[in-house]
Design brief:
The complex is a heterotrimer of chains A (about 230), B (about 250) and C (about 625). With about 230 residues, chain A is mainly α. Chain A has 9 helices and no strands. In chain A, helix 8 runs antiparallel to helix 9. In chain B, the strands form 2 sheets. In chain B, strands 2-1-5-3-4 form a 5-stranded mixed beta sheet. Chain B has a two-stranded antiparallel ribbon with strand order 6-7. In chain B, a hairpin with a 2-residue loop joins strand 6 and strand 7.
């Protein structure tokens, strides 16, 4: 008789899948951030002696976007990313639906002081982020890459971020993302089995710093554009 | 002390249960929580009423038989205590106390506060052992084990199998219970031979019993009477992944 | 029936080997045809069940807890003895044998004790192989600590949870056999009677504690690993559900009960705090390695322990027993504590405790070392009392702990009923009148893992042609009726006195007159009181509910009904023995300075009592012979 093993078949396997896809998405966040930081850098960061004819924010951002869309290895990675997001969501659904069934009769009284709200509500945080991603991609990715209706992405971004409701939506989405990352990064490493005590201790701090840093840097981009 | 108790009463797994209210006076601060329930039961017995059924045995925190979720927390609000070690001095006069059984689909209620925890035994049956039959053993000192490794293995082996981790986990996952055994045996040289299969079999059994998956909230380790570490779950995940990648 | 201990021939050290050389064994192909019922899942019962299943027998394991891992072996703290001589301090099998016989005050059977000492060596190997995380030196080799009553360091330990760790190993071995399919577990099943067919034990009648159903189970042999009956004192270090019913009902079916009055009163338990108390938690004896026991020199000294200077403290064990000091055997330590408390030097609000002080040890070794050695015990103490023992001495008090007495067994661990075996604390065998610390885990494990599986085959070799035993015979019918009748009788009482209250009263009688020190007048009074209480129980016990499902009051009542009978036999036995030996201290037989006086001329025997249908007991004497050890007055001075 053989045992069931693999990423889809057991509870530990499914958590591994969450971890792998989650960490890949988190890694993408770094790359995505680096490109978008162009949006908030002053023009003095683009010396004409070095960059030549794209030596301003507008041209640099558009050149970067153009490169992303037309360089095939990036396209390939992008497809991996879409797949990762899809798997992350589907796997989360699978795990959550199963976990809902495990309690049986509910407690009359619950006391949750033994764990953090974030760690218990990754599903809610994830759903908010999911909605946010759909809107976010609808605003930029759809128009620029898929439909091709907009060719000057820089102008589109700046125009979008001049609206109050967009700012509020983005701040909510990004802060939610920060919370999701703080627990997610630590949990992912645990799921993958990085067990040495000292390493886990460091990872805990890295996860906290990473979540805060990502949330902060992503959050200031729309704000700076709005107030500029 | 005067107390109002809201206790879960349920005849069997097949019938529906509900909270019943009992008032108790003259509770001493020196009583343990279970002695307080003894007192209630003596009052009920005197009146000829069916007593509240609850599991308990050693009353010194080691057998793992006492359970109870007290005011929403497994084994009560003091972290790393068992119910039998919880004393009434940590409750206030006039307080209302909610007492419920450990709940999980894998823990069907037997009666009132007694639940069936056989599902945990079946996880151990799946592989939580070293197959050394009586008579096979080599001289004990022929297997030197570093002091720190032995101590660390002990930390995991200390699990008393009470199931508080499962009752507390929002997903009713038995990850902490299972990982304590996986980690205990994986850390020791004696456990190496069966290491790869053990974790795979145990995880399979865990899922088949209807326990949920671990989401690393850490609540289990906070209530564990023996302070088994969340790190053991991480260790188990490592062992599981290792068993995916390595073959004997 | 005359007692036959079946001790093998030959010199002491060769007896076990001679036995093994000449015993009959069962062909592996035939083992599958043989059913064995094992009652209890602790170190003795569980060990036997697992080992027998490994051998290929068809084993049915019954226990009343919800999992095999809950058996009360789990609560043993300090350690397990073995004559490994890893410390090079002069230990060997003979010295261990000597210490055990002497510790038991020359009232145990030489051949059994020697076998236990011999097999202790194998037990450590076995448990290590099973994954028990014994304490280790930094070199990686096994570490030892010393224990009361001996001068060498031979105790192996896993922090203060040795019993738990050994039990986990046994439990895991059991679980493995469940998976293999050689062993069937019957959890939450209580054995209530035995079926004897043609003089042989052939089955049990059990009550399923979940459904309430009475069931019949047959087998070719029945093994009892059901522990001791110390809970008879109500307040004891035992688990709440530990009971004497399984052994007692075997006694009523014809098994002799030996030395029932020998109960060990453990010196280091937590004192009683009030009337409501249900349990006296044990603090491991290993604490006496580093802790010093004292009481104030002045009577009723109400100062805080920290305010009492050294010259006002009476380290009475060090004073009375300079050679062994705080490490005298348990009976001696308990009695000395009782003597001080009776003299008015007790401490605590009820004046029922003595101090166990770690100040000197913390000053010598540092808090960290003490924490590593006893950390979990200090934590446990804090959880229960709310006091930090690093800064204030512990308050401890004697409490009922272990039954040296039990079913009489021969060298093969067989009772006087053929086919019925008793292992571990359920039998009377190895500890004499007083058990040494860390010998109980040893005896239980050795009996279960090494002795019984080898001796039972001698009996079973004649059973291979018996075939399956039917449960439809009149004997099963009759035994089941006895059980159902008793359940009905209990439920029909419908009185007003809760079972626990009657039990508490029984405990008080027993602890007053049949515990640490005993006298004729007191015990005669006790017998009257026990009889009165028994009558009251059957007239006025409050047992609500029915027998159609779980009913803990009914379970407790059944056990108490047996306790009320065991109590009488304990007292009868204690009255019969007109000498002081080990835990049995008769006030009439003591020296001027309060030490025990043995009477080897008249009482060098184990008293095995035969049930006479409820009217008195018949005494059978097993004379003890000591050929390999000089019988001396036990002295720890």
């Amino acid at each position: 008789m053989a045992f069931k093993q693999g990423l889809f078949k057991t509870s530990v396997g499914r958590k591994n899948l969450m971890a792998i896809t989650g960490l890949f998405i988190a890694f993408f966040l770094i790359i995505h951030l680096v490109g978008n930081l162009i949006l908030i850098l002053p023009n003095s960061f683009f010396p004409v002696e070095f960059w030549g004819n794209v030596a301003n924010q507008h041209d640099m951002y558009n050149a970067y976007s153009h490169f992303l869309v037309h360089f095939w290895p990036i396209t390939l990675v992008a497809w991996v990313l879409y797949l990762a997001i899809a798997v992350h969501i589907l796997d989360a659904l699978l795990i959550t639906l199963n976990n809902w069934k495990t309690r049986g009769e509910k407690y009359e009284v619950t006391d949750n002081s033994t764990s953090t709200w974030i760690s218990r509500n990754m599903g809610i945080l994830g759903s908010i982020i999911g909605i946010f991603i759909v809107i976010h991609m609808g605003q930029f990715w759809l128009q620029y890459k898929v439909l091709g209706t907009e060719h000057d992405l820089y102008n589109l971004v700046v125009a979008t971020f001049k609206q109050e409701w967009v700012i509020i939506l983005y701040e909510i989405g990004i802060i939610t993302l920060g919370f999701h990352l703080v627990h997610g990064i630590e949990s992912a490493h645990r799921s993958l089995g990085i067990y040495p005590k000292k390493v886990m201790h460091i990872i805990k701090y890295i996860a906290l710093c990473f979540g805060i840093a990502m949330a902060f840097l992503y959050a200031i981009i729309p704000l700076i554009i709005y107030f500029k | 002390m005067k107390l109002t108790l809201k206790i879960w009463r349920q005849d069997s797994a097949k019938t529906k249960g509900k909270l019943e209210t009992y008032n108790l006076s003259d509770v001493s601060e020196d009583m343990s929580f279970l002695e307080m329930l003894d007192m209630l039961n003596e009052e009920l017995a005197t009146k000829g009423e069916r007593v509240v059924e609850f599991d308990h045995d050693c009353r010194e925190g080691i057998c793992g038989q006492c359970s109870l979720v007290i005011n929403g927390q497994a084994h009560g609000h003091e972290s790393h205590y068992t119910t039998c070690q919880t004393h009434m001095r940590s409750f206030k006069d006039g307080e209302t106390i909610f007492i419920e059984p450990f709940r999980a689909k894998a823990f069907p209620v037997i009666r009132d506060l007694k639940v069936d925890r056989s599902s945990m035994d079946r996880i151990i049956q799946a592989g939580g052992y070293i197959s050394a039959f009586t008579g096979m053993a080599p001289e004990a000192n022929s297997i030197p084990i570093h002091h720190n490794i032995a101590e660390s293995a002990f930390d995991s082996a200390a699990c008393i199998g009470c199931g508080a981790c499962i009752a507390t986990c929002k997903n009713s996952s038995a990850a902490l219970f299972m990982s304590a055994k996986v980690a205990h045996l994986a850390k020791l040289p004696q456990g190496q031979v069966e290491r790869l299969e053990r974790v795979a079999w145990m995880v399979n059994a865990h899922d088949d019993e209807g326990f949920g998956s671990c989401t690393n909230t850490g609540a289990c380790a906070m209530v564990c009477p023996q302070e088994v570490q969340l790190l053991d779950i991480t260790r188990m995940n490592y062992e599981y992944n290792r068993s995916l990648c390595v073959t004997n | 029936m005359a007692l036959n201990a079946k001790t093998p021939k030959g010199p002491l050290k060769d007896k076990w080997q001679n036995y093994l050389d000449n015993t009959n064994i069962v062909n592996p192909a035939n083992r599958k045809k043989i059913d064995i019922i094992v009652v209890g899942s602790g170190l003795s019962g569980g060990g036997a069940a697992a080992t027998l299943a490994e051998l290929g027998y068809n084993v049915k394991n019954f226990y009343f807890q919800d999992s095999a891992r809950r058996a009360h072996s789990v609560a043993a703290q300090g350690g397990v003895n073995a004559a490994k001589n890893y410390k090079n301090d002069g230990d060997n099998i003979y010295r261990m044998f000597y210490d055990t016989i002497k510790g038991g005050d020359y009232r145990s059977r030489e051949s059994n004790v020697y076998r236990m000492a011999q097999l202790s060596v194998d037990l450590i190997d076995h448990m290590t192989a099973q994954g028990v995380p014994f304490g280790r030196e930094y070199s990686g080799y096994l570490s030892n600590r010393s224990f009361g009553g001996v001068l060498v360091s031979r105790t192996f330990y896993a922090r203060g949870q040795t019993g738990q760790q050994l039990l986990m190993a046994t439990y895991q071995a059991l679980m493995k056999q469940v998976k293999v399919g050689n062993l069937t577990e019957y959890k939450r099943h209580e054995v209530l009677d035995y079926v004897i067919i043609d003089g042989k034990a052939r089955g049990v009648i059990v009550r399923d504690l979940v459904t309430g159903k009475i069931e019949r189970h047959s087998a070719h042999a029945v093994v009892l690993g059901t522990g001791g009956f110390g809970k008879i004192f109500y307040l004891s270090t035992l688990a709440m559900n530990s009971n004497g019913s399984a052994t007692w009902r075997a006694h009523k079916k014809g098994a002799y009960f030996a030395n029932p009055s020998w109960t060990q009163i453990h010196p280091t338990a937590l004192p009683q705090a009030g009337e409501h108390q249900s349990k006296l938690t044990l603090m491991s004896e290993s604490l006496r390695n580093d802790g010093r026991i004292w009481v104030p020199k002045k009577k009723d000294d109400d100062r805080k322990p920290g305010d009492i200077p050294d010259e006002d403290r009476d380290y009475y064990l060090e004073r009375r027993y300079p050679a062994f000091g705080n490490l005298v055997p348990r009976d001696v330590a308990s009695r000395a504590a009782k003597e001080r408390m009776d003299a008015g030097h007790g401490v605590g609000s009820l004046k029922n405790a003595v101090y166990l002080d770690f100040k000197t040890a913390i000053a010598t070794y540092g808090k960290d070392t003490i924490k590593e050695r006893y950390g979990n015990l200090f934590t446990m103490y804090k959880k229960i009392t709310g006091i930090d023992a690093y800064s204030e001495p512990m308050k401890i008090s004697p409490a009922a702990h272990f039954s040296m007495g039990g079913l009489w067994v021969d060298y093969e661990l067989g009772t006087t009923i053929p086919g019925l075996y008793a292992v571990g604390e359920a039998n009377f065998a190895d500890h004499g009148a007083n058990r040494l610390g860390a010998n109980s885990l040893l005896q239980a494990s050795v009996d279960g893992n090494f002795v019984l599986p080898n001796t039972i085959s001698n009996y079973l070799s004649n059973e291979i042609r018996t075939g399956k035993i039917s449960t439809d015979s009149p004997e099963f019918e009759e035994a089941e009726k006895t059980v159902t009748d008793q359940v009905e009788k209990l439920l029909a009482i419908k009185g007003t006195m809760p079972v626990d209250q009657i039990h508490r009263r029984l405990g008080k009688i027993m602890f007053k007159e049949v515990a640490m020190s005993r006298n004729e007048k007191g015990m005669k009074w006790a017998i009257d009181e026990i009889k009165k209480l028994r009558k009251e129980f059957w007239e006025n016990a409050a047992i609500p509910g029915d027998d159609k499902g779980p009913n803990s009051e009914l379970e407790k009542a059944g056990r108490l009904a047996d306790y009320l009978e065991i109590a009488e036999l304990m007292t009868v036995d204690a009255l019969d023995r007109k000498e002081s030996c080990g835990a049995h201290f008769r006030e009439e037989y003591q020296t001027e300075d309060g030490e025990a006086v043995r009477d080897d001329k008249n009482y060098m025997y184990s008293a095995a009592w035969e049930w006479q249908g409820g009217k008195d007991w018949k005494l059978h004497k097993e004379q003890l012979e000591f050929n390999d050890i000089e019988v001396k007055t036990r002295s720890y001075k």
